[in-house]
Amino acid sequence: MATIEERIKSSKQKLGEKIPCSIEVLTPVHIGSGVKFAEGIDFIKTNNSVHIVSQAELMKHLENDPDEMERFIQGNYKLTALNRIPDGKKYNISIGKTSEINEFEKNGNGKPYVPASSLKGSIRTILLKKRFDALSPSEQNNLLQRVTSNKKEWASEPIIKELLGDNSNKNLMRVLEIFDAEFEELELEKILIMSLTNTDGTSYGWKQLWSKQNTANPNQASQIIAETLPIGIKGYSSISLDNFLYNDPTAKSTLQFNENTLQDIQYLKTEINNYSIQKLEKEKQFFEKLTSPKKLNLVIKEIDNLINKIESLSKDEFILRISWGSGWKGMTGDYLNDSWLNNFRRKYQLGKRDFPIFPKTRRIVFEDIEPKYLTGWIKIKLYDTKPEVKVSDKSSENEVDPMESLKQNFKVTELKKKK
């Protein structure tokens, strides 16, 4: 008779083991909440710092001051008008004339987090390209001809249904389960939009959003200030493949999943790394062509660092790009040839009509005054769990008597015992 441990192991093998994993930030990651912090309302700034005050802290502060609460309700409100500004979060960064900050997504505990949907969406893009590339040229053309929607948001639906499943029950991504990853810290980063200025892809400028022009001087360009996960920080999640849905004979015949698409986690890891290194090589080529005003050498160096990391990964690690900054091609899988890309560009008015290179812009994170990072690259390490926080034992001689502590902070007069 099988032991309890053996039964548990058998069940895990049948249903799919939930694998703990860490998520390490390799380049600054921004996942927007859709909210923009406003100067004077959500933050104040000096020449070299920014002080953000959360709405929760602000409300708690205003509850204790009816006059300031009334001014807030009437709309005549500025953070600088407070008698005491709540602690909030201070960053040592100069944001110049910028009056908005892009907020990072936060969970119910107020912690920044990477939603499972962001991770799953990035992986779905890779699987979509893998399955599309496996089709013959005629099959690819027939499939792309079925894209008839006039709304670009729905353009990929026929392709997704054909390659991943024609409804939510039969969608291949149902097999993959990923959980949110919570993080502890955020930074503020300055991001500029680099834009090509000639059709050869050799010169560029920095976007001035207010004038729709480009400038060679980044100090004169529009800057986006965003809360980001800083390089090196780790969060923890888990990932699993539902082996029951994937291998059970009845489920398999009903769902009709392709056996060669999602064999196991190791197969998935290999496909992700292959895709990521192809994307990075293309990005490197894009930046190496730039000669004027000067090559973005630090950006190229950081791309090389990412490529080197992929080539030296352990068997349980993979690197991918998520969320903001990955661009239209990154979100769709970059599986269109030039002819079809041009067709869809005309149909959905993507990019400048007379500009042959698409996309022609990149979001670049600056370090001080130098352009340095692409956004959104992370490393996932399987079977990596969050370290337990060790609480050190305090000896009795180090413990403080609560009454003695009160005496030190307040004037406490002991009552004399009656004789």
Overall structural class, as computed from helix and strand content, comes to alpha+beta
Largest sheet properties: 6 strands, antiparallel
- The end-to-end distance, rounded to whole angstroms, is 76 Å
Coarse morphology: globular
Summed up, the helix count is 13
Instruction: Give the count of structural domains.
Output: 1
- Range of helix content: 25-40%
Query: How many strand segments?
Result: 18
What Rg, in angstroms, do the CA atoms define? 27 Å
What is the strand content? 15-25%
Unreliable spans are 10-15, 405-419
Instruction: Report the mean per-residue pLDDT as an integer.
Output: 84
Organism: Stygiobacter electus
GO molecular function, one term: RNA binding
Keywords: Antiviral defense, RNA-binding
Family: Belongs to the CRISPR-associated Csm5 family.
Description:
With 419 residues, this protein is an alpha+beta fold. It has one domain (13-31, 105-382). Helix content is 33%, strand content 21%. The chain has helices at residues 4-15, 55-63, 66-74, 116-133, 137-144, 157-164, 243-247, 249-255, 265-288, 297-311, 327-332, 338-348, 402-409, and strands spanning 19-25, 32-38, 43-45, 50-52, 89-91, 100-104, 113-114, 176-178, 181-182, 187-196, 204-208, 213-215, 224-228, 234-241, 317-321, 361-367, 370-374, 377-382. Strands 10, 11, 12, 13, 16 and 17 form a six-stranded antiparallel beta sheet that branches. A five-stranded antiparallel beta sheet has the order 8-14-1-18-15, with helices on both faces. A three-stranded antiparallel beta sheet has the order 3-4-5, with no helix packed on it. A hairpin with a 7-residue loop joins strand 10 (187-196) and strand 11. Helix 9 (265-288) packs antiparallel against helix 10 (297-311). It starts with a helix and ends in a 10-residue tail after the last helix. Residues 23-324 form the CRISPR type III-associated protein domain. This is CRISPR system Cms protein Csm5. Belongs to the CRISPR-associated Csm5 family.
